[in-house]
Amino acid sequence: MTHGAHRLVAHRLGGDPLPRFLTGGLACYRIYATADDRHLTVGALEPKFFVRLCEVVGRPELAELHLDGARQEELAGELAGVFAARPLAEWLELFDGEEVAAGPVATLAEAAAEFGSPVSELRAPAVGEHTEAWRQELGLA
User: Phi, psi at residue 117, to the nearest 5°?
Assistant: First the structure.
């Protein structure tokens, strides 16, 4: 698995085409706040997905800025304004069935309900709760 993962990212040895390429450097690959203080992920690296996203949100002219490195912050600002105008549920409804490469950021409760154990079963240990047991196991008690 390790060798496969290394082969998968070997293309990045020459550097990223833009700084922070997949960590906020591109406006088409970011997280945006919505009107209800929720968040929407956009992962539209491929031009066809970004073009369609811009069309669906009513801003087709933004598509030409897709990979213009000098204008990513300007584009991100425009998209932030667009996404801030509606609550998350409205965006998800609008994007349903569209090829836009966008989706919701789940809250912790939503993620736990969907993918994890029920929240009532999860409990982080208190600070120092296991200290004495570890000290004994290490022969320090």
Answer: -80, 155
Query: Is 73 inside a domain boundary?
Result: yes
Reduced to 3 states, what is the DSSP secondary structure of residue 129? Answer: coil
**Would you say 62 and 54 are in contact if contact means Cβ atoms under 8 Å apart?**
yes
CATH number for the domain that contains residue 88: 3.30.1540.10
Name the domain count of the chain: 1
Q: Within its chain, how far is the Cα of 98 from the centroid?
A: 19
pLDDT of residue 120: 61
Residue 134 lies in a domain: no
For tokens 């932030």, the residue is: 80
**Across residues 9-27, what is the average pLDDT?**
72
Distance separating alpha carbons of residues 66 and 84, to the nearest angstrom: 20
Query: Looking at 17-21, 22-26, 63-67, 68-72, which range is the least confident one?
Result: 17-21
Does pLDDT of 119 surpass 60?
no
In a domain, 53, yes or no: yes
Evaluate the CA torsion angle 7, 13, 14, 20 in order and state its sign.
positive
Token pair for residue 30? 């970011």
